[in-house]
Design goal:
Layout (H helix, E strand, L loop, with lengths): L5 H9 L8 E2 L5 H12 L10 E6 L1 H18 L3 H12 L4 E7 L8 H21 L3 E5 L2 H4 L1 H8 L5 E12 L11 H4 L6
Bound molecules: flavin mononucleotide.
Enzyme class: oxidoreductase
InterPro entries: NAD(P)H_nitroreductase, Nitroreductase, Nitroreductase-like, YdjA-like
GO molecular function: oxidoreductase activity
Length: 192
Amino acid sequence: MPSPNPQAMDFLLTRRSRPAKTLTTPAPDRDQLVPILIAAARSPDHGKLEPWRFIVLGRTALERLALAATGRAAALGLDEDQAAKARAAFADSPLCVVVVEVQKDSPKIPPLEQTYSAGAVCLALLNAALASGWGANWLSGWVAHDRAFGEQQLGLAPQERVAGFLHIGTETSAPPDRPRPDLDRITTWMDT
Ligand SMILES: Cc1cc2nc3c(=O)[nH]c(=O)nc-3n(C[C@H](O)[C@H](O)[C@H](O)COP(=O)(O)O)c2cc1C
């Protein structure tokens, strides 16, 4: 017989990100963040490779990265809007956890499965932050994919890349729900 956890199910059926722009301080302190990171690291991981790690960005680091993003946008010749968006994502964030995908050499586990695991860690971190009462949002943007930015500003190694910037803070407004997928359209039932 299944042993239901209705509270957990209710959370999963109603969970909703809070847009990063609407987050403010206070952000979780270290003691409050640790259980969220532990929950995130408790994610499916084929072969126990741990193909991910965290970088916690507090306000000083975020200000530095905001400046660096502006400089990098100019070097890349990006338009004002792209530069401003990347700058604001760091400058306005109360706290950001970078989930870094770390590809491990494995004769058995394909790289794609390690990527999936890193994505699972991002969602687990998001959900743990939301379940702890914080507002949270998983963002990427061009900075997530720019090699030079990742290596110079975040210290990424060649086998590493950003899986997600997880912004966490206090919500100022709850957004309306977004349209959710039509289950009939995305589900093929092979059960008869
Ligand atoms: C890998 C990934 C990157 C994302 N990057 C962005 C982004 O840069 N900007 C943005 O507005 N939303 C981005 N999103 C979407 C939001 O994180 C989120 O999916 C959306 O706000 C709805 O979230 P919810 O289903 O938790 O309510 C991204 C989602 C994923 C999975």
